Amino acid sequence: MKNSGIHYTGVDFDRAATLRKDQDWVDKQFQNPKCLFIPIWQNKNLVTGQNDTSDPGIIYLSKGQYSGFEKLVSESVFLGFDDDRPIFALDISGIKEEILKTHFNQGEFINLRLIGQLLKARDAARLAYARGIIHWHNTHQFCSKCGSKSINKSGGHLRLCSNMECGKETFPRTDPAVIMLVEYRLESGEKKCLLGRHTKSPEGMFSTLAGFVDPGESLEEAVVREVFEEAGIRVGQVTYQGSQPWPFPASIMLGFRAQAETININVDPQELAEAKWFSADELINAGEWGDKNPGLKISRKDSIARHLIDSWINEQL
């Protein structure tokens, strides 16, 4: 499948979804001398340090390196094959920070959200996959039906209730959220797009509107509802644009373009500090989230929000 160009997509592993159901087979892959490991420590990924000449990159651990801390691993997940190499994610969150360097003297553990846009697309996708599924294990240690301890199964892609009378199976969770660029055509023919500043965002930081999908509604209905709830704008036509896994902590972002039928903004102050209509000329030279310079800023390049904005700008030029 062709990469969409959206960050955190394009994981190229053979996930071996049928084979990983056999625990003996998973154990055999774990013992493969070619096996590589992606460690996760308290939701942070191990990467090479950034410097003036190179961007950060993914660090894999070998079988030999794993043997030095195997007793400190709380969860392991088979991610798939990279050619003939089995790749596993390891949760080592139980290691105390002061002794972390004893086992990992190369690179550093960093929040993926802070460096994602600096990584090569393949590295970013793989680290997001590892981070997301380890987070799921950390938050689903117990059965949601009876409260008993749950057990890692199917290579880490299933948790099974340890209570044989219950036996509930739980699969990795991802929460669907819609994210949309709303546009309006003026009588002059010029188009403008609607961006909002969240109540927790700094002055000048604007992005597309977004929100979680409610039970019992379609994705398109969620777009219509969220835009009206947050900005008081009625939208009509809604068109799908693409999706992005967003493991911060466990979402799938579903991108849309929506056509506004009204233009007067009325924000929900609990959601947005403000919302504005912007032209492409106003956005093309905007900074991005994290910049220290004053002025207008928009979402960073690793987000589907930025993909939606940039695609719209390019259409107007």
Task: Describe what this molecule looks like in 3D.
The structure is a single chain. The chain is of the alpha+beta class. It folds into two domains: 19-139, Nucleoside Triphosphate Pyrophosphohydrolase; 175-316, Nucleoside Triphosphate Pyrophosphohydrolase, CATH 3.90.79.10. Helix content is 22%, strand content 30%. It contains eight helices and 16 strands. Strands 9, 10, 11, 12, 13 and 14 form a six-stranded mixed β-sheet that branches. The chain has a five-stranded mixed β-sheet with strand order 3-4-1-2-5, with helices on both faces. A three-stranded antiparallel β-sheet has the order 6-7-8, with no helix packed on it. A hairpin with a 7-residue loop joins strand 7 and strand 8 (169-170). The longest helix is centred in the middle third of the chain and has 18 residues, at 121-138. It starts with 22 loop residues before the first helix and ends with a helix. The mean pLDDT is 94.
